[in-house]
Structure formats: C-alpha cells, structure tokens
Amino acid sequence: MNVIETKSLSKVYPGAIDVVALNEVDLVIEKGEFTAIVGPSGSGKTTLLNIIGGLDSASSGSVIVAGEDICTMKENKLINFRLHNIGFVFQAYNLIPVLTAKENVEFIMMMQKWDKQKREERSTSLLKSVGLAEQIDKRPMQMSGGQQQRVAVARALASKPQFVLADEPTANLDSKSTKNLLDIMARLNKEEETTFVFSTHDQRVIDRARRVITLEDGQIVSDERR
Amino acid sequence: MILKLAWRNIWRNKRRTLITATMIFMAVMLATVMQCVQRGVYDRNIDNLVSYSTGYIQVNAAGHHEDKTLETSVAFTPELIEKIMSVEGVKDVSPKIENVGLSATDNSSKETLILAVDPKREAGSTKLDQRIVEGRYFNEKDNAVLIGSGLAKRLNVSAGDTIVLLSIGYQQASANGLFPIAGVVELASPELNKRIMYLPIAAAQNLFLLGDQVSSISVLLDDKLEYKRIAAEIEGKLGEEYEVLHWQELVPELAQLAEGDKTSGKMFMLVLYIIISFGVFGTVLMMLAERKREFGVVTSIGMKRRSLAIIVVLENLIISFLGAIVGMILALPVVNWLHTSPVSLAGDMKQAYEKLGFEPVITANFYPDVFIGNASLVFVIALLLSLYPLFKISRINPIEYLRS
Ligand SMILES: Nc1ncnc2c1ncn2[C@@H]1O[C@H](COP(=O)(O)OP(=O)(O)OP(=O)(O)O)[C@@H](O)[C@H]1O
Ligand SMILES: [Mg+2]
Questions:
Q1: Distances (CA, A) of B376 to A156, B103, B256
Q2: Band of the pLDDT at B269, cuts 50, 70, 90?
Q3: Domain extent listing, chain A
Q4: Atom 17 in ligand 1: residue holding the nearest Cα
Q5: Spatial separation of the C-alpha atoms in residues A54 and A81, rounded to whole Å
Q6: Residue B352, H or E segment
Q7: E strand intervals along A56-178
Q8: Do A93 and B297 touch (CB under 8 A)?
Q9: CA B240 to CA B238: how far, in whole Å?
Q10: Which of A141, B1, B181, B364 is deepest in the core (most CB within 10 A)?
C-alpha cells in the first residue's frame, strides 16, 4: 500500500534568480518503509519532506498521502490532516518546554481527544520503549538532546500516524545518542509497523536505512533498496 | 490542558511575567490611589463647604435662591418638618438664617456672613461644637455668638469680648445688637473662617424680626450620595410655594471645579495607561519572538491556531488579572491611610488650595467604582494588546517559524 505518492513534484522559490528546489520528483513510499533521503546540502531534502508533510506547498505536481491529495487542501483541513496522519520529528527543540516528557507525548492524543486512560497507557508504554521510563516527569530542559529526540519520536508515534517524517533527527546528537535513536526508530518501525522517512548527512544513519533515495539539485539520482 | 499550558507558560519566564505584572499593578495602584485622592479631596471640601453653609439639600421659600434676602424666608413649622422627614433617607432638618452685616469693635469693622443655626442640630450634623478653639459652644437660649477664628483675628477679638452686629432685618428694619462672643470656631474652609459668625436661631429671629421664619431649611441625609433622589422626592411632596435645591444647584462653581479637575485627571490616566500599554506590548513582542520555534512546532504537528491563540490570550489575561488584583489590594492600605490620617500641605500647595477655598490637606476616600474601573480598564487593555499576537498566530507559516 502506498502511503506517499508524488507525481512530477516541483518546487520553485521565485527570486531574482529562481531556485528550483525540487524538479519533477516522482516518488512512492510504501507502508512499513524505513527510508533515508540523502544528498548534498541544498539538494532539496528539507523541501521534499516539508511538502510531503503538508507544511509547504508544491509549485506543480501532486502529492497523495494516504489516498488524499494534500495539495488542494485548505489550511485548516491540512492542520487537521497532519494531526491525524503524520508524525514529525525535527532537528532539535521539538518539545513544548513547559510540558513534561509524558505530557509532550500525550499532547497529540489530547488534541485528538483520546480519553485519559488510553493516553496514559500509550504514553507510558511508548516512553518505556524509547528507554525513558525514568524520565517521564522531566521537562525538556532537564533532559539531554538525545533524550529529547527520543521523546519527540515517542510523540510522533503517539497517535499511530500513517508515517513519521524526520528531518535530520540526529544532526545535533553525538554518535552514541545517534545509534541509540536509530535503534529505537528501527525497532518501532518493526514493532509498530510505522513508516519512517528521514533525511540525513550521517553515513552511519544511512547505513541503517533499508531504502536510500539520493537527491541532487532537486532530482532523484538514485533509489536503492537493501 | 489549555489552561495548564497557559499557566505554565506564564511562569516559564518568571522575570518577564513579574515585570509585566508589576507594570500593571503599579498602573492600577497609582491610578486608583490618584483618583481616590482626587475625589476624596473634592468630596471632603464639598462636605466642608456644603455642610457648613448650604447643606446638601435646601428647602426654601420659592425664589429664595434668586433673591437671597430675608424677604423670601420660610416658616419653619412642624407640618413642614414632618413632610420633609417623611422622605426616606432624610436624617434630620436644620433651620438656617443667613444674612450679611458688619461686625464691629471700637476700632474696626468687617463684613460678616451671619449664619443662625439650631445649636443642638448643628452639633449633631456638622459637629460644630467640636470646632471650638476658644471659649465655649452656645445653646438655643443664648444671646451670644460664635465667631470664625479668621474673623476673630481680623477684628482682634477673642471669647468673652463683646461685639456689635450691624445688619438689616425683615422688611428693611434696621437690626443692630450687642453680643458677647461665647466661643471661637475654626472651620476647615479658610474662606468661611474669615467671614463667619454663628447665632442661635432664636436670637437671630429676634434680631431680624422674623417671627417663626427662617431663610432656609437644610436637610441632613443618611447617605450624602443620594442627594439627587431625595431632593426630587421632597420636591414632590411640597407645593409650589417652596423650592428644593441640592448642592450642585446651590454652588454650581464647586461642582464645575470638581468636573474640570476630573477631566485633567482623566488626561493623566490616559497618558499613564498609554505608557503602560507600550511596556506590556514590548513584553508581548519579546514573548512572540522567543516562542517562534515552539509555535512552529505545535502548528506543524497539528495544533489548531485557535487553540494556540486562546492560550496566548489567556496568558495575557491571567497576568493582567493578577496585576490588577495586586494593584487593587495594594491601593487599599494607601487609600485607607490617607483617609484616616490626611496629610497637611505646606507652602505653595497650601496656598493654592486655600485660594480655592479648600482645606489644605491631601486625603482619600474608598470608592469601589474607582477600584473596579481601573481593574477593568487594565483588562480591556490586555484584551486589546492580545489582538497583535492573535494576528501573528493567525498568519503563522510553520516552515518559517521552524527555521528560527
Ligand atoms: N524559503 C526559501 N526561499 C528561497 N530558497 C529556498 C528556501 N528554502 C530553501 N531554498 C533553497 O532551496 C534549495 C533546497 O533547499 P533545502 O533546504 O531543501 O535543502 P537541503 O537538502 O535540506 O539542504 P541541507 O542539507 O543543507 O539541509 C536550496 O538551494 C535552498 O537555498
Ligand atoms: Mg535540510
């Protein structure tokens, strides 16, 4: 089953000289994938993830997510669509500073109006599975960068989204935390059958991916499955 | 959840919150105290002037206000008293006879305001007996006078001396008499102090050949603020041959002065609140800049802008609410202190006050409407200042916000 499908997706940033960030990208991501988007700086990784995630609009082409064309959605509908279908992990400072780890994980379920008991169960078990059983009542400030990213992964998974998008999730982490986070993502990918799409520059991270899509100048130059 | 987020956000930058709340409570406190002082000073002086001269409400023979002579005097009869007393909120009635004349000693004479009162009632209503600074208070049967301390000084007389009173009585009869000075009184109003002489009603009726007539009847009220309603009700009970006036009609200059000062007070408040608004707005801008990334994250992961907006507005409202409450609470002891122990003025301020005929003291009264008014004003300002973050939030572009 395709969770993401782009057709001739292009993104042009107009300016004195137009920047073509994405050039006619055709891409299909299937359920359960663990895919890395790689490429040199400025190749369009972030742009691609943003458009797939409904955060940015395409200049032309189409993006079908979970069977729906997100390019034609109105802003409010899009926010709601993101809430229910897509998990996000950003490079850093993902969490709401005034909420504890557990509250951060429950945040999305709360917005989806889950009842309290189900929220508790899910957030506790997720934090346990990312190895933060001891930290559930800590605020982001009291946790290391790696721990914060793990909370962010737990939050992204909280409401069982169609897929999780992670733009350079390990960029700010040391190698130990990087390995740890990748282990967790890989395990959750198996256990929860969550689709992961992440961008990275880090060879060790690339090595863990089961599919590696390489972008250059906004075009897919290689697409390799392992 | 939303409330929890708002509450925690407030305390996340304690210093900023405290600065904002402090600005707000200072404004509320300052404005409240100022207005309570301003109105307090006026009310005290209105009270000084009005209760010692005209009274809050006066019942006269029709036309007396236009032609303040003894020719338009009114009979102080039991039936009339009963009619006035039957209106709710009337505490007592107090007859007055007003006239002008000259008071003289062997070597000087001064223009004098002659005010005849019922000694007992006057003691009860204006506590005139407590104003004695020399000699003694008088009683109904005395044929003696009380003299204002200013007038006593100008005539160089004191209690125990005798004074000559030259005046014109009812129907132009000449009315001259010789009166011992029972006591010297010091009134709060410097203007009255310089010119006033008190006589017992009976002595004055004798002197001016008035019979049972008096110039006017002052009505004493349970609640001074109710003067308008009570005046109207008394008017309704009495016939055409009477006129009923309240203090604003009796001394319109004073009412106008109070109004004028209120306007300048309002201008000051306006400036104060504009300054505060800018200060608070500055912290709002700081808050927005600081939380840009957070706003980007939460809208990206699917938080409705409306929910985010509610949180930010709530934060603003809670802070201003706290500020307003603290401001009101802190204003209370200040107002109370000024109320119980008025501060006497000296120097230029003293002269300025005396020029207005005011007692030169700073005092304050507790006016609930002033407290509530300022607190709600701050609230409205907070709401208005919330419009900007609302506008910003409605236009959040997640990617742009995430980049910061
Ligand atoms: N808002 C924007 N306005 C103009 N040009 C932009 C904008 N965002 C990105 N670009 C341009 O689009 C191109 C692709 O940028 P993008 O951020 O997607 O690259 P990236 O692969 O994520 O790079 P990096 O590895 O450095 O994160 C770049 O040339 C960039 O300069
Ligand atoms: Mg990037």
A1: 43, 55, 27
A2: confident
A3: 2-225
A4: A46
A5: 8
A6: helix B347-355
A7: 60-65, 68-69, 86-89, 163-167
A8: yes
A9: 7
A10: B364
Cα nearest neighbour of B5 on chain A: A98
| Of B273, B265, B221, B333, nearest in space to B42 by CA | B265
ipTM: 0.93
- Alpha carbon of A77 to ligand 2 centroid (Å): 26
Query: What's the pLDDT band for B134 if we cut at 50, 70, 90?
Result: very high
Cβ of A149 closer than 6 Å to ligand 1, yes or no, is no
Residue contact B300–A90, C-beta within 8 A:
yes
| DSSP 8-class letter at A160 | -
Task: Please count the other Cβ atoms lying within 10 Å of the Cβ belonging to residue B253.
Answer: 8
Q: What CA–CA distance (Å, rounded) separates B404 from B396?
A: 13
Contacts with B297 from chain A: Cβ below 8 Å: 88, 90, 93-96
**pLDDT at site A141:** 93
- The predicted-structure confidence for B373-400, as pLDDT tens digits, reads as follows 988 888 898 889 889 999 999 888 888 8
Q: Which amino acid is at B267?
A: M
Q: What is the DSSP letter of B156?
A: T
Helix, strand or coil, per DSSP, at residue A16: coil
Closest-CA distance of chain A to residue B46, Å: 56
Q: In this complex, do A84 and B298 lie within 8 Å of one another by their Cβ atoms?
A: no
| C-alpha pair distances (Å), A31 with each of A162, A187, A197, B252 | 8, 15, 11, 87
The helix or strand, by DSSP H or E, that contains position B299, with its residue range, turns out to be helix B292-300
Domain spanning A2-225: CATH superfamily: P-loop containing nucleotide triphosphate hydrolases (3.40.50.300)
Tell me the CA–centroid distance for residue A80 and ligand 1, in Å.
26
Give residue-wise pLDDT tens across range A134-161.
Answer: 999 999 999 999 999 999 999 999 988 9
* Contact present, B31 and B334 (Cβ < 8 Å): no
Tell me how far the alpha carbon of residue A190 lies from the centroid of ligand 2, in angstroms.
Answer: 26
Indicate the residue of A95, A99, A111 with minimum beta-carbon distance to B302.
Answer: A111
* Nearest residue by C-alpha to atom 19 in ligand 1: A42
Considering the entire predicted model, what is its pTM? 0.76
The answer to whether the beta carbons of residues A163 and A3 sit under 8 Å apart is yes
What are the residues whose beta carbons fall under 8 Å from the beta carbon of B205, sequence distance 6 or more?
B97, B116, B211, B212, B213, B214
The structure tokens listed for A89 are 């992990």
Could you tell me the distance, in angstroms and rounded to a whole number, from the CA of residue A42 to the centre of ligand 1? 5
In this predicted model, what pLDDT tens digit does every residue of B292-337 receive, in sequence order?
Answer: 999 999 999 999 999 999 999 999 889 989 999 999 999 999 999 9
How many whole angstroms separate alpha carbon B228 and alpha carbon B333? 31
Task: With CB atoms and an 8 Å threshold, state whether A53 touches B299.
Answer: no
| Residue B377 contacts residue B270 (beta carbons within 8 Å) | no
A85 neighbors A54 (Cβ within 8 angstroms): no
B143: which residues sit within 8 A by CB, 6+ positions away?
B179, B180, B200, B203, B206
